């Protein structure tokens, strides 16, 4: 929503009036722009190049001007794409805006503040320069414009923003980068009015033991007085005070006190306090301000680990760009909140600001909801010069210093580190947080932490066995469907068990897709450069999102299936750092699954109960006693949900109570009394029962000429063929048995036996055996079905997302249903779950097609189904290669690699044991059941119940 400027000024004037009555000594704020991408203000604008250039018009502020239809788009790596003669778009934007300040502001100091402007920004007020041109896009900067203002009269603001900086080092650090780059005033602009004597900013150091120190920076102190601090808890109760005297002309005062037994801040316990600071003289309060903060102590113990409040912690982190498809880097509070919640929903505890400091609101949410933050000075493989960087470090730290969520400062990315700036952070940070170097090459460790990027499993083992703490600030690059959770289970277990691991930060949270206002509003991810997220541009959830949620779950239950001796006790490991499991709560449900042909998917809850939480200390193990009723085996499955102390769902586990054969009771039927009709010709053997027809090609042995019980042809066939190994058709025979007709197909080679049987009910069984020895990406058999005929699929098995051999997590057993889509992960239209892929532990699968429905089931566990043609990673050749056919029933599936494995086929195996090919030795047997149509099932369909938000996985 965009409000007219007059409305904005009226509202803001009203707010100022209220503030001036309630808090005459507080800072007063008047916005000149809007506050975010949904509340903007209209300014005059002139663009010097590209689209809509060469004339004065209007623009919304804040914004990236490309998203308003101006100028030209650039991706930071365009210089690589287009070669030596490439020139970045270097248009300038000229802004004009008229504003009025209240007459009551006379006698105050008035500053104009820019939260972020890309890149060089020249500011004039009433024709006079506000100060030196600011260079650097992602930093708050301000000018004292008191002597340039006309009070209670119109004032003219003129701003010239140059897309490319006049400082080459600023361009190198910020714009020659692997992300979209923009121009414009992309964060808010506002005025601040202070009394003549005031506090410009503070820097807090609040330790876990309650020690509190605070630097208070004064402006224009003209008389002796005092600075007083009052520390308030979350209920507003005063828990500590401090005071110091101020001499005339003092510019810095340090306050100290100690709070008894404070509630400590961690990502698990984000306890916040507030400090009210007052500047007083002669018994009067001249100025008052406040800051939120948390009590916590950060330590790097060399050769050991990262400690928060005396407890070793590991970062379960991810990299986050400040991003929204329609508005680029201009965001709003709801986007910031959504991102923090999504990161925490994945059971992560940390986020890296890649590759620049974020909006202040994002950090406030990390403080209040609990995330460890790595705040980063911009510098993507190239660094700021020392003169440019010194100013920007100061601006960054002064803005962000009091956020307890920030536990590291990062001095640039992947070689974009100017080591001369390392000691600058501590000049403005009283708590002296650790500084790290986020490098992509070994040998650049700093402060005892190696942050080397994109090591594989085996090189990570070597680094963790060395003397430094290892905390990769980027790893498992998640372009397309690769990386992120692919290979993470092995990698995370390695980090979790290693003494010197500090955890790490996955690349990355979001696919950076921008709505191209020059290309009919398509969403552009710049080829393979920007689809790097586990979320789509609008935060669409990929399969890795849910796998990360399971892998990073602080309540770890490693129970793939119920053992035969199961008596209701579940082993549980507490991977929280600060939380006992008795602070969490658990709930079980006994459920029955819906059947093929039912209108709805899912399960029906028959019984449920909340159970007592065991006392399991952080990092300890114990048992969770479900206290199930005696008849629990009479239900299809047990559902166990775990909730954290804040009542957020941590994870949900589902276990079937019996075998696939039990699950097929009432679905697969063999007791038909009608005989099977046989038609035998030179080239074709045809069987028919219950209006279903199947044929067998006597020259190939393949199933063919299938007709469903609706009388229509079903284009299913061209199999079975082995997907790995060799086989040659050697003949076909058939015989009649009392309950059906048997067709036996002989092969030479690795396919040892194939036995079809059609029953009078119309059901068809397929028993087969193959034998292999060696390493294979996949094993099993395959058929074909035309993709363009497919409408949807419903199945009982793991879902709703597809899996890979090295990403089996994040899927649970239920009756799932997906509509057909042709989604390629990381590309438009971002419809998830992907319809096509490998799907795990299928008991039955109902295909819905334009030719009718058909059903496939397996009486053995652990069957994978491959649906149609797809790939995990794009490239010269999509990877990995697929089995023959397009509709496969598999016992083993391939692993997936990452973008940064240059030879993907060779390097995927280096992601860990589960990323190796399948090691196969001996024979595999399986029985499949087919019904070409929709079978009748026993039992009445259960009514549909509206799921709660925690039922929706």
Automatic annotation (TrEMBL):
Domain annotation Glycoside hydrolase family 2 immunoglobulin-like beta-sandwich: ranges: 204-296
Record flagged with keyword Signal: yes
Pfam families to which the protein is assigned, alphabetical: Glyco_hydro_2 (PF00703), Glyco_hydro_2_C (PF02836), Glyco_hydro_2_N (PF02837)
Cofactor: Ca(2+)
Family the UniProt entry places it in: Belongs to the glycosyl hydrolase 2 family.
Subunit structure as annotated in this protein's UniProt entry: Monomer.
Name of this chain's protein: beta-galactosidase
Organism: Hymenobacter jejuensis
């Amino acid at each position: 929503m965009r409000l007219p400027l007059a409305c904005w000024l009226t509202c803001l004037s009203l707010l100022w009036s209220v503030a001036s009555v309630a808090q005459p000594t507080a800072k007063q704020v008047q916005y000149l722009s809007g506050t975010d991408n949904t509340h903007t203000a209209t300014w005059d604008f002139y663009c010097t190049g590209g689209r809509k250039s060469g004339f004065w018009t209007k623009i919304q502020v804040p914004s990236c001007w490309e998203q308003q239809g101006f100028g030209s788009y650039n991706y930071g790596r365009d210089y690589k794409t287009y070669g030596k003669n490439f020139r970045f778009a270097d248009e300038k934007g000229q802004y004009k805006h008229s504003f009025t300040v209240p007459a009551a502001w006379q006698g105050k100091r008035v500053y104009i503040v820019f939260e972020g402007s890309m890149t060089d920004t020249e500011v004039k007020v009433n024709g006079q320069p506000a100060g030196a041109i600011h260079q650097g896009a992602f930093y708050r900067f301000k000018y004292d414009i008191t002597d340039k203002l006309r009070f209670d009269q119109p004032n003219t603001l003129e701003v010239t923003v140059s897309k490319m900086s006049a400082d080459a080092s600023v361009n190198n650090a910020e714009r020659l980068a692997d992300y979209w780059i923009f121009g414009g005033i992309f964060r808010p602009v506002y005025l601040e009015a202070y009394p003549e004597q005031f506090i410009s900013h503070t820097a807090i150091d609040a330790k876990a033991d309650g020690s509190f120190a605070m630097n208070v920076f004064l402006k224009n102190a003209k008389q002796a007085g005092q600075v007083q601090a009052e520390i308030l808890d979350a209920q507003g109760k005063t828990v500590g005070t401090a005071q110091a005297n101020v001499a005339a002309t003092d510019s810095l005062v340090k306050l100290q006190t100690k709070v008894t037994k404070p509630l400590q801040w961690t990502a698990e316990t984000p306890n916040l306090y507030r400090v009210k600071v007052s500047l007083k003289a002669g018994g009067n309060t001249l100025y008052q301000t406040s800051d939120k903060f948390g009590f916590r102590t950060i330590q790097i113990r060399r050769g050991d680990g990262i400690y928060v409040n005396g407890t070793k912690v590991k970062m379960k982190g991810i990299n986050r760009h400040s991003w929204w498809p329609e508005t680029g880097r201009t965001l709003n509070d709801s986007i910031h909140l959504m991102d923090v919640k999504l990161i925490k929903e994945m059971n992560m505890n940390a986020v890296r600001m890649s590759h620049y400091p974020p909006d202040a609101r994002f950090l406030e949410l990390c403080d209040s909801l609990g995330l460890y933050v790595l705040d980063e000075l911009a510098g993507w493989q190239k660094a700021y010069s020392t003169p440019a960087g010194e100013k920007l470090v100061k601006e960054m730290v002064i803005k962000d210093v009091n956020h307890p969520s920030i536990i590291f400062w990062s001095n640039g990315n992947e070689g974009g580190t100017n080591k001369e700036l390392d000691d600058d952070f501590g000049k403005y940070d009283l708590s002296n947080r650790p500084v790290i170097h986020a490098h992509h090459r070994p040998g650049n460790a700093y402060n005892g932490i190696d942050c080397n990027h994109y090591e594989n499993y085996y090189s990570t083992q070597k680094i963790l066995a060395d003397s430094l703490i290892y905390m990769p600030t980027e790893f498992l690059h998640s372009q397309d469907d690769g990386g992120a959770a692919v290979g993470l289970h092995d990698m995370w277990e390695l980090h979790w068990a290693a003494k010197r691991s500090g955890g790490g930060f996955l690349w990355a949270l979001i696919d950076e897709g921008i709505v191209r206002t020059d290309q009919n509003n398509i969403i552009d991810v710049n080829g393979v450069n920007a689809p790097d997220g586990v979320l789509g541009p609008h935060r669409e959830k990929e399969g890795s999102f849910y796998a990360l949620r399971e892998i990073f779950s602080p309540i770890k239950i490693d129970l793939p299936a119920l053992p035969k001796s199961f008596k209701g006790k579940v082993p549980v490991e507490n991977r929280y750092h600060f939380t006992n499991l008795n602070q969490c709560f658990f709930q079980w449900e006994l459920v029955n699954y819906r059947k093929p042909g039912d209108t709805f998917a899912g399960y029906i809850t028959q019984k449920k109960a909340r159970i007592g939480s065991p006392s399991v200390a952080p990092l300890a193990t114990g048992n969770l006693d479900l206290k199930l009723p005696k008849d629990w085996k009479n239900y299809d499955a047990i559902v166990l949900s775990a909730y954290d102390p804040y009542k957020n769902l941590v994870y949900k586990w589902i276990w079937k109570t019996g075998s696939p054969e039990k699950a097929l009771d009432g679905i697969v039927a063999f007791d038909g009394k009608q005989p099977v009709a046989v038609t035998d010709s030179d080239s074709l053997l045809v069987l028919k029962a219950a209006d279903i027809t199947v044929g067998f090609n006597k020259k190939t042995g393949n199933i063919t000429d299938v007709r469903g019980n609706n009388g229509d042809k079903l284009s299913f066939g061209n199999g079975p063929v082995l997907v790995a190994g060799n086989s040659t058709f050697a003949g076909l025979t058939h015989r009649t048995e009392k309950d059906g007709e048997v067709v036996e197909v002989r092969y030479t080679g690795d396919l040892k036996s194939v036995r079809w049987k059609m029953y009078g009910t119309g059901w068809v069984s397929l028993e087969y055996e193959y034998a292999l020895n060696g390493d294979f990406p996949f094993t099993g058999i395959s058929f074909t079905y035309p993709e363009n005929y497919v409408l949807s699929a419903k199945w009982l098995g793991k879902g709703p997302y597809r899996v890979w051999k090295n990403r089996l997590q994040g899927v649970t057993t239920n009756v799932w249903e997906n509509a057909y889509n042709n989604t390629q992960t990381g590309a438009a239209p971002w419809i998830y779950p992907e319809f096509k892929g490998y799907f795990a532990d299928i008991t039955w699968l109902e295909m819905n097609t334009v030719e009718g429905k058909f059903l496939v089931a397996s009486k053995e566990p652990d069957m994978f189904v491959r649906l149609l043609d797809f790939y995990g990673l794009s490239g010269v050749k999509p990877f990995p290669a697929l089995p023959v056919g397009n509709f496969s029933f598999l016992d083993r599936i391939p692993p997936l690699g990452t973008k940064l494995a240059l030879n993907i086929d060779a390097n995927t195996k280096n992601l860990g044991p589960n990323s190796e090919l399948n090691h196969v030795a001996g024979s595999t047997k399986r029985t499949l059941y087919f019904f070409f149509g929709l079978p009748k099932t026993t039992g009445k369909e259960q009514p549909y119940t509206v799921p709660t938000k925690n039922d929706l996985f």
